[in-house]
Every structure is written in C-alpha cells, then in structure tokens.
C-alpha cells in the first residue's frame, strides 16, 4: 500500500493533486483554511482535516503544500512553531508553490524553525497536467530517507522532473519557465490575430499555424481554446501575472536588462485590469484584439 499523503491547500492545483493521488492508490487527507473547500473532496475519497496541527499524525509523515505565496505558506504553518504538531517522528513537507528565489529563502528559513524536513517542488502544467500525471517538476534537494518515496510520488504526478542543487535553483528555473510560457502565449495571440487579418478563417489558422518550427506548447494551448471558443478557466490570468511578476526581481538580482519583460508585464497587467472578474489566461488574446481596434 502506498504511503498516506496529506495536502494543505484545496485550490485548483491542490484539488487536482489530491484527485490524481487518490486515483493512483494513495490515501489522501486535505486541510484548507476555508473548510468547505476540503469538504468538496470527500466524494473523491479524501478525508478533511480541520486543524493544521493535525496535518502530521501517526498515519502520515508526508505533506504537500499548495499555497499562493510565501506569506500564505508562513501564516498557514505558523501554528506548528509552538510544537503542537501531533506527530513526533521524522516528517517531510513538500512545497509545490511557485516562489521567487528570495521568497524561497524566506520560507526555507521559516521551515527550519519547525522540526521537519523541507523541500521545494514547484510544478508546471496546471490542474490539467496534475490530473493527467503530466506535470513538470523542479525538485530541490531532499534527505536520503525520504528520497525514494518522494520520487515514487513524483513519477505518479509528473512526466518529467529535474533534481536541482538547491530550492532556490528549483524556484528560479520555474520562474524562468513561467516567463517563457507568458511570452509564448503573447506571441501566439499576436500570430493568430495577424493570421485573421491576413484573411484566414479559424479552421485554416488552427491547421496551418502549428505546422512550422515556431510552434510552442502555449501556441497549442491557445489554439485549442480559440478553436472551441472555450471560456472556461484552465489557468487563471491573475495567477499567470503573479508568476510573471516574479521575473522582475530575478532580472534585477542578475543585472540582466531585458528587451521584452517590461512591455510584456505591462501588457498582461493591462489585460487583467480590463477583466476585473476571474478569467482564463487565454483572455489575453481578446485583450490584444481589443488593443488593435
């Protein structure tokens, strides 16, 4: 039987990870500060946990955190500082949140105050990738005692992963990858709109645009949404921008002057300001079309 995994954070990614792990035979419990989100996973086979102090217990020594940022991670786990965690044995916390390298250092320093082993495992692929076991993961160093069980879990969730030298390297490469994703989405939006202006119809664009070597994963993502006129939220625009903004301090710290980043960040932020309600990242295409009217 597989080891029990507990999850902190029942948002879109946390819920998808829980369902994937349950489908693959892992017993799963879920904690969320908004209790009803954890309760929504009961029908999928998850057991809700209502106190963070119970997240480590005699049945579970491995926890996955799926939270928004450094502040939410620290505030959620703050109660464990008083030593009231109900599990005295060795335990592992796996943080899948995307953080900038400085945020990563701050969270890692906080976690050292709690008696646990800690590793950062930022993932790419969103909820859909999680449900299909096709995430990409950047794994920080982990103690040998937990490495086999962590690798077993990662192979269930991910199609590819890389072992990095530090948590900060893992986060930095995830941030760089996110930058590429945002850029590829924006370029694909311009390419589709340009093809429309040339006079191609939707079917012609979807057939011919990805034929050449300029194709990217995010061109495929946008073309799929475009072809089906799909407005559902696969990855929210506000989270795309949250991840994109983590690039700025990385550029500053490395003294890299980007030709593209300032304009790209400005465009995505304008797209978000034009859509006050939560929308999918592909809404950037609608923003670009409106920009050209």
Structure description:
With 293 residues, the chain is an alpha/beta fold. The protein folds into two domains: 161 residues, NAD(P)-binding Rossmann-like Domain (Rossmann fold, 3-Layer(aba) Sandwich); 121 residues, Orthogonal Bundle (N-(1-d-carboxylethyl)-l-norvaline Dehydrogenase, domain 2), CATH 1.10.1040.10. It contains 13 helices and nine strands. The strands form two sheets. A six-stranded parallel β-sheet has the order 3-2-1-4-5-6, sandwiched between helices. α1 packs parallel to α5. The longest helix has 32 residues. The mean pLDDT is 95.
Features:
NAD(P)-dependent oxidoreductase, three-stranded mixed sheet, NAD, NAD(P)-bd_dom_sf, 2 domains, six-stranded parallel sheet, alpha/beta, 9 strands, N-(1-d-carboxylethyl)-l-norvaline Dehydrogenase, domain 2, Rossmann fold, 293 residues
Topology:
Blueprint: E1 5-8, H1 12-23, E2 28-31, H2 35-39, E3 47-49, E4 62-65, H3 70-77, E5 92-95, H4 101-111, E6 117-120, E7 123-124, H5 126-132, E8 135-139, H6 147-157, E9 158-163, H7 167-198, H8 202-208, H9 217-228, H10 237-245, H11 247-254, H12 261-273, H13 283-291
The fraction of residues in strands falls at 5-15%
Major sheet description: 6 strands, parallel
Q: Please compute the radius of gyration using only Cα atoms.
A: 20 Å
- Quaternary status of these chains? single chain
Total of DSSP H or I helical runs spanning 4+ residues: 13
Protein name: NAD(P)-dependent oxidoreductase
Organism: Brenneria corticis
GO molecular function, one term: NADP binding
Keywords: NAD, Oxidoreductase
